[in-house]
């Protein structure tokens, strides 16, 4: 069923192109916003707009949003390379390999953590959307490392709350180009979808508050190994913030990494790994921490960049 929204043009969107404004208002990609406009489903003061029309102050917007596509259900099949770091009756902690999404989404046809656990005979919580069984946080498909999944309904609700209230310690290691100055610092910059609508995110005025703390563990000739502590958990947050300070993750071509360096080190994705995860156990109450060793591709690249220094 379509969702009809009617509202005045927000002050911050005066003078914006209609497609860009729609993207920011409803979290759509720029191309999806253009499709909705082309279908005649965006009216300004009662008249259909073109994607390049500019919104004016005091105008009245009427937007008919199509129903979201139903997400696919997880396919229960084992995921090669996904190891179990810890398991009890309430939680299971995995070391997620490359090329595995947390859960099914529209357009993703690859393996998922949920499907892999179900395929290997593990039980997961059934709370939440069917495609997100047990999922309380996510890692990008090509970001590896420690990830916890809820097995019991109690664990699901308590872990979701813990992540929302930032009572979880999430530590990442990232190999970034160059040498951040200062060696230890904080990036506090709001993040939202990139105006281009090509699936990227960016530092955007008026975006969601996002805070990343980093500390240099080791500096090499061409790159630096950082430990990163996330205060917030936005999509692509580390990748966006490192790119914003001109030190993108090695291999992260989507966010401006040098393809020559990536090729020399044999890195075909962002050098980013969730190395440690700590949280209060949802039923025992004890603080627990888990560490995930680097996968082979990141380990080899780190050895090579260290050997070149």
Automatic annotation (TrEMBL):
CDD domains: PseudoU_synth_RluA_like. One of its GO terms (biological process) is enzyme-directed rRNA pseudouridine synthesis. Keywords: Isomerase, RNA-binding. It comes from the Bacteria. The active site is at 140. It catalyses: a uridine in RNA = a pseudouridine in RNA. GO terms for molecular function: catalytic activity, acting on RNA; pseudouridine synthase activity; RNA binding. Residues 90-244 form the Pseudouridine synthase RsuA/RluA-like domain. The keyword RNA-binding applies. Belongs to the pseudouridine synthase RluA family. NCBIfam families: rluA_subfam. Responsible for synthesis of pseudouridine from uracil. This is Pseudouridine synthase. The lineage of its organism: Bacteria, Bacillati, Actinomycetota, Actinomycetes, Streptosporangiales.
């Amino acid at each position: 069923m379509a969702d009809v929204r009617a509202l005045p043009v927000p002050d911050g969107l005066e003078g914006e192109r209609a497609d860009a404004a729609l993207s920011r208002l409803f979290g759509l990609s720029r191309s999806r916003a253009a499709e909705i406009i082309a279908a005649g489903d965006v009216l300004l003061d009662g008249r259909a707009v073109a994607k390049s029309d500019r919104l004016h102050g005091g105008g009245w917007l009427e937007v008919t949003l199509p129903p979201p596509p139903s997400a696919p259900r997880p396919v229960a099949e084992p995921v090669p390379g996904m190891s179990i770091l810890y398991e009890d009756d309430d939680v299971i902690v995995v070391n997620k390999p490359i090329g595995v999404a947390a859960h099914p989404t529209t357009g993703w046809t690859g393996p998922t953590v949920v499907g892999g656990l179900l395929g290997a005979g593990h039980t997961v919580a059934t709370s939440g959307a069917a495609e997100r069984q047990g999922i309380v946080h996510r890692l990008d498909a090509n970001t590896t490392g420690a990830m916890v999944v809820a097995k019991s309904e109690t664990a699901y609700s308590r872990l979701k709350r813990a992540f929302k209230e930032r009572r979880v310690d999430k530590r990442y290691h990232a190999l970034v180009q160059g040498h951040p100055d200062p060696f230890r610092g904080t990036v506090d910059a709001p993040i939202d979808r990139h105006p281009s609508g090509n699936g990227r995110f960016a530092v955007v005025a008026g975006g969601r508050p996002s805070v990343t703390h980093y500390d240099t563990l080791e500096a090499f000739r061409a790159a630096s190994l950082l430990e990163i502590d996330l205060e917030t958990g936005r999509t692509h947050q580390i990748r966006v913030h490192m790119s914003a300070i001109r030190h993108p993750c090695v291999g992260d071509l989507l966010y401006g990494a040098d393809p020559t360096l990536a090729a020399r080190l044999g890195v075909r994705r962002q050098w980013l790994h969730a190395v440690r995860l700590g949280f209060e156990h949802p039923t025992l109450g004890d603080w627990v921490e888990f560490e995930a060793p680097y996968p082979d591709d990141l380990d080899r690249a780190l050895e090579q960049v260290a050997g070149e220094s």
